[in-house]
Design goal:
The complex is a heterodimer of chains A (558) and B (287).
Chain A: E1 2-11, H1 15-28, E2 32-38, E3 45-55, E4 66-71, H2 74-80, E5 84-93, E6 103-106, H3 108-114, H4 121-132, H5 140-147, H6 150-166, E7 182-185, H7 186-196, E8 201-204, H8 211-218, H9 221-224, E9 227-230, H10 234-246, E10 251-255, H11 257-273, E11 277-283, H12 300-305, E12 313-317, H13 321-338, E13 341-347, H14 348-352, E14 354-357, E15 407-409, H15 423-434, H16 436-443, E16 448-451, E17 457-462, H17 466-478, E18 483-488, E19 490-492, H18 497-505, E20 508-513, H19 519-528, E21 534-537, H20 546-557
Parallel strand pairs in A: 1-4, 4-5, 5-6, 8-9, 8-10, 10-11, 11-13, 12-13, 17-18, 17-20, 20-21
Antiparallel strand pairs in A: 1-3, 2-3, 2-14, 7-14, 12-19, 16-18
Helix pairs in contact in A: 1-4, 1-5, 3-4, 3-6, 4-6, 5-6, 7-8, 7-13, 10-11, 17-20
Chain B: H1 21-34, E1 42-46, E2 61-64, H2 71-80, E3 85-91, H3 92-98, H4 100-109, E4 114-119, H5 154-160, E5 165-170, H6 174-186, E6 191-196, H7 208-214, E7 215-217, H8 228-236, E8 243-250, H9 256-259, H10 261-265
Parallel strand pairs in B: 1-2, 1-3, 3-4, 4-6, 5-6, 7-8
Antiparallel strand pairs in B: 5-8
Helix pairs in contact in B: 1-6, 3-4, 5-8
The chains are: A alpha/beta (558), B alpha/beta (287).
Bound molecules: thiamine diphosphate (TPP) and magnesium ion.
């Protein structure tokens, strides 16, 4: 069984607090959770909502149909009541004028007044919700003690109890298993991957929806001894990260499209200097400022070639919080091993989507630095860009080996890093650098496949579309449709084995993407000559859900 | 003292004969040698321009990055390894124009680096366009009818935002330049030296003689360089009435390392000992 709760209201009314309480309590009771956020770019007013989906089996995306709405204002009901299922319930304060029969109009404000904490209204609503789902009060109080300061914990828990007592029970739910999970969103998972992967320096400039990566790191910087620096602009962020990388620490930066655009010149500097670097682009709708708090997958084209001149890079998209963790740690190793740029793509949907998953397995992570030692560097003068079979030159860091100095240069340079305009050296250096693309091609991971063994209809997507597409395939398979989906994580170099295998026999190829132009389809066409037959594209700033994918497929494709 | 020749390299130097840079380079080597800094302990960081070629002409670690972007990587590498002596050598265009924003915030951040600006009041490498320090009305290879923007006063700017070490030197006075460089390198925090340097090819106004006739050394006995308001006033002195050389302002203040205390107390960031498992404890935050 899966249930879906929407918590809505103007910015500043506290829907965040309610959702944290509800998510934590349900998680502790052993339910699987998937929650996602729909926010406006403002601090007060407007309309925001969070959807919390929970159930007794794993959940990997959001869902349109609602079982309960917690409405902190009238707009919430106006906007979302049509999505309420037949057995659905609305919870709101008694003062709201709502003409819907299955509404629990609780005196939430009065309850908050009774506990002498006007901000506890949300806790009362959370209490009502828990009762509606027939849950007992076990494990609840601990959540309040963890979340709030001492006094507010008391009053909030008290308000919760009042809401709980007031509401009737509506749903009969089977019990869940014991909780063994973590509940984490995409950006926090990237940050956890960065910490596990040994990032020592993260420089960034705030920009939604990348900011929370920096926040997750900075709140742990004292504890870990890493440095998180909020810099003056994204140009500084990436150049500072390159300086830190030069000096030998694992460095990383993150931003969204506009900030990434400012970093572009320095991406190319990475290409010339061959310094390990990982850059996250957490996408939001463009062009320009676009919609700051919404989602899109429209920067794939951009990041594939961003930077003047030609140099090797790896581009990967993370698909869910678990993937985000492991791929971030992997990206750091690849950047070091090949002295390349690795770009990680995510987006607002995944950045803010929290999912219950198994705790990360830290024994699967290693930190592999690939530094050369004094004995590996021959000759009296260190050749930072020494030609080698693989194209990767032995790398030492400055200050560590007496007598050896490291010269890194943005110009074309000779093996010492010294400026050169020689045609021979230029050609040799280009060959050396570009050779790494072959090495990267050996590192790439095939896309994930879901579906029947031999699909007639093959869906293709990437990154955060994984959850919705996986669920869509399950729904279509339940209807007996011969369907499968390939969801790409690694995008460049493009893995083509599974693609060729399934595309060879499928009758229809359909790309499903959060952009206007079908950027994955374009990449596949460019790299393999394989054309899509049809596409489901969405660029309204909201993530497609599995239900909509299925209905659009039926209407537009099948 | 070390032999300054340990910093020599054989590579060809592409500055114009007679360029002021030919005096700045040996001064730097001299200062480093006197401070007994080995080549591997020093990083010369630059952007792009004639001045910014300095890392190529030295046997020391070098990072020759992007135009205007010398300050960010310099800070990044110093934060990463506090044991390195990080010294920026770049032009006036690079430091005050393309990279102006980084200068402001570098000063605020106060990482312990030295920023030496080769100020020839012109864009040398790109053949003579106006820079942020070119005089109003000066004709250039681009501003045919004269420069239409006011020049900035880099030192007044630095004093006004609280840079703890603000100095001016002249490429024509090596001995003084070496002393100022040494003091700046030893200073804990962001140290800015504006070095007046004639560009014989493209700046026909601010020639060697033009500078020589105007520069004078601040009288250390009567001038209190810890007085910020006096320093600001001093920094505004420019032109025919004289151009002061010396440390105009010096103030000991907390550096980035003092502010991020575990960096000051612990080992260099690059020597941080860390295993993936050390991060596993954060799983508790998501239970
Ligand atoms: C992004 C970018 N813009 C422009 C240039 C071209 N450029 C190179 S150096 C320079 C100005 C150099 O002037 P300055 O920094 O004063 O150095 P100088 O040559 O005078 O020593 C310019 C405009 C560049 N390399 N990169
Ligand atoms: Mg200049």
């Amino acid at each position: 069984m899966k249930y879906n709760v929407l918590i809505g209201g103007a910015a500043g009314l506290g829907i965040d607090t309610i959702s944290i309480l509800v998510e934590k309590i349900l998680k502790r009771k052993g339910f699987f959770i998937y929650s996602n956020k729909d926010y406006m770019s403002r601090v007060r007013g407007g309309h925001n909502f969070i959807q919390v989906r929970f159930g007794t089996e794993p959940i990997y995306s959001h869902w349109p149909e609602l079982d309960v709405i917690i409405a902190l204002d009238k707009e919430t009901v106006e906007f979302h009541a049509e999505r309420l299922c037949a057995a659905g319930v609305i919870i709101c304060d008694e003062s709201l004028k709502i003409e819907y029969s299955r509404t629990v109009k609780a005196p939430l404000a009065q309850m908050a007044a009774e506990v002498k904490n006007p901000r506890a209204l949300g806790s009362a609503a959370a209490g009502a919700l828990l009762k509606i789902f027939g849950q007992n009060l076990e494990l609840v109080k601990e959540v309040f003690i963890e979340k709030f300061e001492r006094e507010t914990a008391e009053s909030n828990y008290h308000a919760f109890q009042l809401g709980y007592e007031y509401a009737p029970k509506y749903f009969e739910i089977s019990a869940a298993n014991k909780d063994s999970h973590i509940l984490i969103n995409g950006n926090a998972a990237i940050a956890m991957g960065a910490l596990a992967g040994g990032v020592s320096f993260y420089a960034s400039y705030p920009m939604t929806p990348a900011t929370s990566i920096m926040t997750q790191l900075s709140m742990r910087q004292d504890d870990t001894g890493i440095v998180v620096e909020q810099v003056e602009d994204e140009i500084s962020a990436i150049n500072m990260a390159l300086g830190a990388s030069y000096a030998g620490v694992r460095a990383m930066t993150g931003t969204s499209g506009g900030g990434f655009a400012l970093m572009v010149e320095a991406l190319s500097l990475q290409g010339a200097m061959e310094l390990p670097l990982v850059v996250v682009n957490s996408q939001r709708p463009g062009p320009s400022t676009g919609i700051a708090t919404r989602t899109e997958q429209s920067d794939l084209d951009f990041v594939l070639t961003a930077g003047h001149g030609e140099f090797p890079r790896m581009v990967l998209a993370v698909r869910n919080p678990e993937d985000a963790f492991y791929q971030t740690a992997r990206a750091l190793n690849i950047a070091d091993q090949y002295q390349v740029l690795v770009i990680i793509l995510t987006d607002q949907y995944l950045a803010d989507a929290a999912q219950t998953i198994e705790p990360f397995d830290y024994s699967r992570i290693s930190i592999d630095r690939y530094f050369a030692e004094a004995k590996d560097i021959q000759g009296e003068r260190y050749k930072r860009y020494m030609p080698t079979e693989s194209g990767v030159s032995p790398r030492i860091i400055p200050g560590k080996i007496a007598g050896a100095v490291v010269l890194s240069d943005s110009h074309e340079h000779n093996e010492y890093g010294h400026i050169s305009e020689s045609a021979e050296i230029r050609t040799a250096m280009m060959n050396k650098r570009m050779k790494k693309l072959e090495l990267l091609a050996q590192e790439i991971q095939e896309p994930e496949y879901f579906g029947v063994e031999k699909p007639d209809m093959l869906l293709l997507g990437w990154g955060s579309m994984q959850g919705p597409m996986r669920e869509a395939v399950e729904l279509l398979m339940q209807e007996g449709k011969p369907v499968g989906a390939l969801v790409f994580g690694d995008l460049y170099p493009l893995p083509t084995k599974l693609l060729k295998k399934y595309a060879g026999t499928a009758k229809k190829l359909i790309n499903i993407e959060q952009n206007f132009t079908g950027q994955l389809a374009k990449l596949i066409r460019q790299e393999t000559g394989i054309f899509m037959n049809d596409s489901i594209l969405n660029y309204n700033g909201r993530q497609l859900d599995s239900y909509t994918i299925c209905s659009r497929l039926k209407k537009e494709v099948l | 003292m070390l032999d300054p020749r340990i910093y020599d390299v054989k590579d060809e130097i592409s500055w114009c004969p007679g360029c002021g840079n030919y005096n700045i380079l040996p001064s730097l080597k001299q200062a480093l040698a006197e401070l007994e800094l080995q080549p591997h302990q020093v990083v010369i960081v630059s952007g792009i321009g004639q001045a910014a070629k300095t890392p190529h002409y030295m046997n020391a670690n070098g990072f020759n990055g992007l135009h205007g972007r010398a300050v960010p990587p310099a800070q990044g590498m110093k934060i990463a390894n506090k044991n390195l002596k990080v010294i920026i050598h770049s032009g006036d265009g690079d430091s005050y124009g393309e990279g102006g924003n980084h200068l402001l915030h570098g000063i605020r951040r106060n990482v312990d680096i030295t920023h030496i600006v080769h100020n020839n009041q012109i864009y040398g490498l790109t053949k003579g366009q106006a820079s942020p320090t070119t005089a109003l009305g000066q004709k250039t290879t681009m501003q045919f009818d004269g420069n239409t923007s006011d020049p900035i006063s880099p030192l007044a700017l630095a004093v006004s935002i609280g840079c703890g070490f603000v100095a001016r030197a002249f490429s024509g006075d090596k001995e003084h330049l070496v002393e100022i460089m040494k003091e700046a390198i030893n200073y804990k925090g962001y140290a800015l030296i504006d070095v007046l340097q004639p560009c014989i090819a493209f700046n026909k106004v601010n020639t060697f003689k033009w500078y020589k006739d105007r520069v004078y050394k601040i009288d250390d006995t009567s001038y209190d360089n810890s007085d910020r308001v006096a320093a600001f006033q001093k920094a505004l002195e420019w032109g025919d009435n004289g151009i002061p050389l010396g440390v105009l302002y010096r103030q000991e203040k907390s550096t980035y390392f003092d502010r991020v205390s575990y960096l000051e107390e612990g080992p260099a960031l690059v020597d941080r000992i860390w295993q993936p498992k050390d991060a596993e404890r954060f799983m508790e935050d998501f239970r």
